[in-house]
Specification:
The chain is an alpha+beta fold. It has two helices and six strands, in the order E-E-E-H-E-E-H-E. The strands form two sheets. A four-stranded antiparallel sheet has the order 4-5-3-6. Strands 1-2 form a two-stranded antiparallel ribbon. Helix 1 packs antiparallel against helix 2. The longest helix is centred in the N-terminal third of the chain and has 17 residues. It is elongated and about 75 Å long.
Length: about 120
């Protein structure tokens, strides 16, 4: 049996996940809950024995909107709003099957968008 392999129902041994990488992209409007979620993911991955690169801050996307204050009289009076989308990138190198199971069971804060690529 391999050191990090698991027994399969067929009696064989599952090979360890080598040369694989899990890339996790996090997006949120609030940077505090984004950083908290990123630290939870990193702690969970390190606890299960995987190597972690990140969290890497990506550029913040700023969407600006300009609207009229009044629809009829004051045409030149305008108001400006903006939404900031903060992003983080986490790479999990050499994940174990326990890492994948722990990440699937992880409960993250509401308002955080998670994209996972293998």
């Amino acid at each position: 049996m391999l050191p990090s392999g698991r027994r399969l129902p067929s009696g064989g041994v599952e090979p360890p996940m080598k040369n694989e990488k899990i890339r996790i992209r996090l997006k949120a409007f609030d940077y505090r809950i984004l950083d908290q979620s990123a630290s939870e993911i990193v702690d969970t991955a390190r606890r299960t024995g995987a190597k972690v690169a990140g969290p890497i801050p990506l550029p913040t996307a700023i969407s600006r909107y300009t609207v009229n204050r009044s629809p009829h009289v004051d045409k030149k009076s305008r108001e400006q709003f903006e939404m900031r989308t903060h992003k983080r990138l986490i790479d999990i190198l050499d994940p174990t099957p326990q890492t994948v199971d722990a990440l699937m069971k992880l409960e993250l804060a509401a308002g955080v968008d998670v994209e996972i690529k293998l």
